[in-house]
Write a structure and sequence with these properties.
single chain, alpha+beta, Heat Shock Protein 90, 2 domains, 5-stranded mixed beta sheet, two-stranded antiparallel ribbon, elongated
Length: about 375
Amino acid sequence: MVLEPSPVSHPTTRERDMNDPIHRLPTRWVPSVVILLGLGLVVFTAVEVGLAIAGYGSRSSVFVAGVITSLPISVAIVAGGYWLERSSLGPERYGRVAWWTLGGLSFVTTFTVVIALTVSEGVLVQIATVRWGTALGTGSGFLIGVFEARSIEEAVAAQRIRASELERRRELLDYLNGILRHEVLNTATVIQGYADLIHSTNGSHDGVGEYATTIKREAQDLTSVTRDVRRLLETADATGDGHTVHLEECLRAELEALREAHPEATIETAIPADIEVRADDMLDRLLSNLLENAVEHNDGDPELSVRARRNGSSVRLEVADNGPGIPESEREALFDPRTRTDTSHGMGLTIVAMLAERYEGTVEVAETGSAGTVFAVDLPLAQTS
């Protein structure tokens, strides 16, 4: 099966652009206006120089310095307008350039008008001063606008790439989940069924019953691992904002399920009834895997103690068992299946760690030894109004 990437939409980016007054402007004309501004400044400067040469204007050092510094800026503005029209920036970004250019022009021109009014070398020098400020403000605003527009364009492009990668990843997870559900689990179920049939029809004849028992056990292990992998895929693929979850109610449901599956287990609880955490509908997966881990890896009569208490802005949930403890060599990689060498704990603890991180919480081995292990999960309390 070949996965074809589906079209990725970006409503957030487009909606923001449409709601921004800058992007509602008819911005396609911005490069042409910039070019006209630059050409106007160039022509204005040329006229001033012509008048000065003809003896109708000032030839002071202030005037000459203004011409020398503003003429290149005016030419650069013209070139900038041509560049903008042919650049990789889309028309939806021209609005930023337009507002910055207009802002720079207005601010610096106003400032130089105030300065020009203090100059006593004649009206032409005052006009030249204002023209110099207009060129400097326009050029500076245009440059700032281009840099900001490019930054926005790069950020949007990066967002689109991330969205595309996430969509491809989601499709792959859905595909793998489908394979596990329809192929692997169904096949394992068929194997178990035939193993039961062989065992019931042949008994212990020539060791066939023993072989059938082995086949059934291995098929059950395959089913268990497959379901764990599916849960991991569902956990990684799940999205959505957290909401308020009543911890005691969620725990009570999972403890009842645990007692039904393991009636031999002794379970002691101390869970306040008024604790609410910020989580989602997959919190039960975290709790069920944590509780099942404490019972399933105990060779004796399981004894559990489940307690919860507030700890500042979070709640600390502790699950203590009377199991054999966890070897020191396995503790560091206990929640990461990629580095774990001991697979006896399955993938349940990995699911616990992934969900705890998703809820901005943590999970750790608080205590472990020959007398048992204490797993501690810290989850943020729900905000109360």
